Records
---
Amino acid sequence: MTKRNVSFVVWGVALLLLAETWAQSPRKKLTPPKPPKGQCCDEVRSLKVQVANLTSILEELSRKQETDLRNVVRQIMDLDQQNRQQEARVTEAESRYSEINNRVEIMQLQNLQSVTQTSSDAIYDCASLSSRNYKISGVYKLPKDELLGTPELSVFCDMETNGGGWTLIQRRKIGLLSFNRDWKNYKSGFGSIRGDFWLGNDHIVRLTRQPTVLRIEMEDWEGQTRYAEYSLFNMANELNSYKLFIANYSGNAGDSLRYHNTTNFSTINRDNDKCVDDCAALRKGGYWYNCCTDSNLNGMFYRYGEHTKKTDGITWYAWHGPNYSLKKVEMKIRPASFHP
Ligand SMILES: *[C@@H]1O[C@H](CO)[C@@H](O)[C@H](O)[C@H]1NC(C)=O
Ligand SMILES: *[C@@H]1O[C@H](CO)[C@@H](O)[C@H](O)[C@H]1NC(C)=O
Ligand SMILES: *[C@@H]1O[C@H](CO)[C@@H](O)[C@H](O)[C@H]1NC(C)=O
Ligand SMILES: *[C@@H]1O[C@H](CO)[C@@H](O)[C@H](O)[C@H]1NC(C)=O
Ligand SMILES: *[C@@H]1O[C@H](CO)[C@@H](O)[C@H](O)[C@H]1NC(C)=O
Ligand SMILES: [Ca+2]
């Protein structure tokens, strides 16, 4: 397009020169009929104007080309910057990834070193993780520890409530999982660590070998929350039927575990309660049944509308009586020696 314009201009200039020589020539010997004098000079003037016009068009064109070029350069620079930003984002993601990797490696390293560690150094529970500055609530993997004879265990840590360092041993909130299970199930644990679960009696026994605090948090269907805390919580081993020992209640839910103090654990297939009835079968859970309940945190989950009709629900008598099944429960433990 530009080339054509240039040749147009060249053609115009040639025409102008031709016209000028023709106009300046004193002897007009041209064969075509002579144009009148005025017409000739008008034509030259018009050609001059045209040339000037063409020149200005040409200048404008080159100016336009320059701005076009500048725009292209700017676009390239923009793209380059975007590219650099994207690269920075990738680098950031990579560094985060490697940070997580480092954490995993540290855990593995600690796992390897655990044989030579004293038990106070070991990653033993969520409290030890909290002391090592892991302050985000969520799922953690406790490495196995030869010295303590503990296998690898996934736990959910509450790192926020009242200073954090809590290892969850139970949660009810979704309601799809049955808690009406047998001795073996309660012994090794069941459910999903982010949802509803029982950590397992053997794991709980192991985690409570040192003086331990138990905290129970509850929510009702009206959205209110209450808690009960026992500054001493202990569970005997399987040989002693996972007998419960609790002391020193505090909280605002009322003390509905005291009635279960010093009773053995019962399940649907193991009646260890202090009653002629079979409480585990009546209350449809695994628990430290007396005769039978003042609370039943592993009972049936009932949804809103059904939650006040039965006596085998998730109950805490001191708060809502024997016929009110709670919406949410969490049981969590931490060493009595823990200092946030
Ligand atoms: C100059 O060119 C423009 C268009 O490019 C045209 O509109 C204008 O009439 C021209 N002027 C003369 C004197 O030829
Ligand atoms: C609790 O279990 C132990 C053994 O596991 C047994 O000796 C004891 O009698 C049981 N206590 C009750 C009240 O059933
Ligand atoms: C549970 O029983 C033990 C032993 O009898 C007792 O020392 C403790 O105070 C009791 N706990 C509660 C909350 O009553
Ligand atoms: C009982 O609990 C209170 C406060 O929770 C605490 O100060 C006290 O030391 C506890 N007593 C025992 C024997 O654990
Ligand atoms: C709870 O329900 C049972 C039967 O479903 C009933 O006999 C009892 O009176 C109820 N108790 C309360 C406190 O509502
Ligand atoms: Ca019985």
Note: The helical segments are 2-24, 37-113, 126-131, 183-188, 201-207, 279-283, 317-320.
---
Amino acid sequence: MAEALNKIGIVGAGQMGTGIAHVVALAGYDVTLYDVSPERAIKGLERVSRTLDRQLASSKITAEDKAAALSRLSAAGSVGDLADMDLVIEAATEDETVKRKIYATVCPVLKAEAILATNTSSISITRLASATDRPERFIGIHFMNPVPVMKLVELVRGIATGDATFLASKAFVATLDKTTTVSEDFPAFIVNRILLPMINEAIYTLYEGVGSVESIDTAMKLGANHPMGPLQLADFIGLDTCLSIMQVLHDGLADSKYRPCPLLVKYVEAGWLGRKTNRGFYDYRGEVPVPTR
Ligand SMILES: NC(=O)c1ccc[n+]([C@@H]2O[C@H](COP(=O)([O-])OP(=O)(O)OC[C@H]3O[C@@H](n4cnc5c(N)ncnc54)[C@H](O)[C@@H]3O)[C@@H](O)[C@H]2O)c1
């Protein structure tokens, strides 16, 4: 029998951290959301509340479900609020230095038996685990965006991840009504190993003038039956996250086919990170998204 995990901490109240908080609280767990400042965590909870409102409006949940989920959610005032968590899921910025710093702060606070998981899209679980005091109790639990909608969660074991950690994580994810796949610990795992080079190639297609933003997205939606175009998807993921994943693939596999497109680098340098900054391959500041190239 896998051990029960009841109190769940989440580090990072961005798109993914709030999405995970939403789904985990709806499933009946107590959730504490932590970010660099309590204000950011509170803003994250406000976003969860708005998403719950939308689910209520479309009858996906009841008013009781919403009230119960909100009553289980709290914003951490400080890292000390994670002290009695059974599982902490780190969903902070896709940057190894940032994640290592977080583990240095969070690990001393956690119970010895707490599981620490990362939602990283690409970074080595084995290497991240080595920056913690608990490689056996460390695992990749990779949710997809948007978390309330997407059915898949990739589980990634580092070289030291223990069986008990793996089984408890798998059982936990099953209670969220998600399907798990297990990936070996190689750069970007399964989903992003396949998805991100496709997105990067779409950006090269734009960069080389083969097609406009609209042509590329329409071509892939109608020609390959993708639910959204690759550039729209890149904006949705976050262009900083896309670039980080391509860098991890490029560095980790040492193959030039993973070279990040210079146009992706330029957008990130401009701070045009996609939906989260209201501008990326599309400008979202008006009524309808307008292509930026
Ligand atoms: N965006 C996606 O589609 C997607 C999908 C799956 C997994 N992921 C992964 O999830 C993680 C988060 O991605 P996101 O899209 O939510 O990013 P985001 O930029 O929306 O949010 C990142 C959050 O981390 C916080 N943060 C940064 N440093 C911190 C620190 N020291 N302590 C606490 N919080 C800190 C930021 O304040 C921010 O709220 C990344 O590892 C990413 O690769 C992203």
Note: The pocket of nicotinamide-adenine-dinucleotide is lined by residues 11-17, 35-36, 40, 91-94, 98, 101-102, 119-121, 142-145, 237-238, 241, 276 (CB under 6 Å).
---
Amino acid sequence: MSKIINLLNKIDPVDLVEFLAFLDLFGYIKNRDYKPEDYLKKKELQKDQEKENEKENENEIEIENEKNVSECELHLPKLHYFGNSLLFLAHKSLKSTASALGLQITNKNNSILQLSKGNAVLKVYEVIELTKNIEDQLHQPSVFDYPSIVNNLIKSVKHWFLANFDYLQGIGLETIYATENQPIGEEWSVEPYDMAFCGGGDFGNEIGWPNADNFLKVKTGEMIIERWEQKWAVKPNRVYIDFWYRCWLAISHEFVHCVQSKLKQVDKTVLNWSAEHDASFLAHTILIGIAKQERELLEKEKKEEKEEKEEKEEKEEKEDNKEKEENGIPVLFQRPGFIELLMLQGLEIAQTDLVLFESDPNSKVDETYRKWIDSFGLEGPGENEELEDGTEYYLKSRIPMEGIRFDIETIKKQVDTCLKNRTGEVHLIELEPPKGVKIEDEIHGIKNFYKSIKEDDWKKTYQIFLNSEN
Ligand SMILES: [Zn+2]
């Protein structure tokens, strides 16, 4: 145990987050199984049930134990698109993290990945233990540099909007800035004031964000962390990791709110369902757009370098990277598999909410969602409508995934539909989303992201782990 902690200390936290995502693909750690608002009810229920089910549990535990001592296996044919893409693109860093932990990624039966130590394949319980060790390592403040992520990402989004959309020039996007929300620390104030990301304040200039590193500094720090875990974390014990993902995934949404404000868009509904629709719809697709641009830039640079037949010295490259970061283009977007890592988490967040509502046959939340997306946000849940617990999370976590597009022309059309020539009361402006922009269930529905990939795709992933050195 102490040995693994010493090893974990030396590994870059982003490498660890990525490795954790890899371990999650083995499927041994479950997502949280309660709706955000249901947490306390669930806790009470659990207490009662635990007593009643003690005997049944004993049998289950035996079966669990049997499973836990079998060899760990990651079945590549069962992977979905983002899982496979992450493995394929990030294979180098995954292998190097494994190696730093004294492990190798090995293969079995031409379709299964395993983790081994020397000649011994890790057992399921060992993978679970390793997962928990990594979670513990990252479950502390000051592991991640949140302010730098938020500030650089704002610069990136700004840069991307200005470079791609003429009509957004000259409206003052340059002055958008980040402010850390200060936790007030009173019990009544914990939500939403301490916890939420928000955008559009100060005449569309301000993006407010909660810094998880401050949570423990206030009186009710433990409680803030617990609330965060209830409301946001996909898996328990991952507040700081979850928060790292949130910083990446939330800024583009809040930035859109700033643009809406600068364009003087007005949404007459009290809960701003149209504004929320557009910001959520564009959130992930903007990140894909930025990542695509960054990767193309990198490819171009590589090609040029090759042509010039000049080998850059490592020192120069580092300086180059530093300069890029200062220009507001996070180098992480050029990291192979990085955007896939983020989208994988986006999918997990959406899927967690989806599954919880699906298990309730009386839930009308899917109907509410469809009405909302079919009207392109103009018909949200009514003001006086009583909403099921967690509806807002469901709506706002599902649509960013279904809004994902991969080709830059369609991504631009999406942005245009939400922002171009849209000033004033949005309900009064005619709106006809062009083809490819509207969410069509057969093509963009979230279930499609969970479909298994084609044989050719996972075989490529297998080959890449098989052929190169561990
Ligand atoms: Zn919002």
Note: Residues 135 and 163 are 39 Å apart (CA to CA).
---
Amino acid sequence: MSQFDSLRSESPFQNKGQSGRILTNEELEKLQRDQTLVSDFKQNKLEKEAQKNWDLFYKRNTTKFFKDRHWTTREFEELKACRKFDAQRLVLLEAGCGVGNCIFPLLAEDANIFVYACDFSPRAVEFVQKNPLFCSERCKVFQCDLTTEDLQANIQADSVDVATLIFVLSAIHPDKMRLTLENIYRVLKPGGIVLFRDYGLYDHAMLRFKSGNKLGENFYVRQDGTRSFFFSRELLAELFTGVGFQSLVNEYVMRETVNKKEGLCVPRVFLQSKFRKPD
Ligand SMILES: C[S@@+](CC[C@H](N)C(=O)[O-])C[C@H]1O[C@@H](n2cnc3c(N)ncnc32)[C@H](O)[C@@H]1O
């Protein structure tokens, strides 16, 4: 992962909308030139070692890599309105929770939520449990590979109000994204919502990959063996609706990120979406 993905200072200007980033001819040519794919042997190895590579990521970076994600508390404001009565306890699932940068701000802000959080990295799960804000009465954290292990081993079917999927689906092989969404679908209540945010097509991070890192269309591997997919809104909508979700919001968020260390201003593209399991 690069410094562009880690601690950064963001300018307040962002645009949201249906149309993605338009590349210059030079940028398009750069992407088109890069057609060499990583060998099948190496691709299989990366898939087998996905869990190990993320666990090593947390061994190296501990809890210091990602910032707390306060945008979820802003977005979650709207979702709190889905309570049928004021005292209703909302049940959340943070799928691929990392060290808890999403869940701890939410737990701090709303006393009346219960959070299930899971990740396939044992170290990440341990960091969540060791966080001073962790409270076993309000949070259950467990290890789970979303692509192979049924969430129902830890969560009742049809019981979750809101699932968050934040920069996680991009780390999963495209062939296994559907299985991941089906897994989440089963534990969501009818009417339950998925909050999604992840890398968008032509994000700056995608254009920075050097030749030799391409795994497939819009799919790349970083130096540390973790992988990243870059989503178009069309592909994401197809994935979610294919599993049975209804699309509520599905838009690009474009913002300029200032990298102070390098004195650069870079265009970031994210996809921010909400999908609903029908009643
Ligand atoms: C970029 S981090 C995001 C963490 C957290 N959602 C956040 O916003 O800070 C991606 C996380 O997805 C987890 N992950 C990737 N593939 C997974 C899988 N198949 N099952 C469970 N977790 C996975 C990784 O271990 C990592 O913690």
Note: The first strand starts at residue 9 and ends at 17.
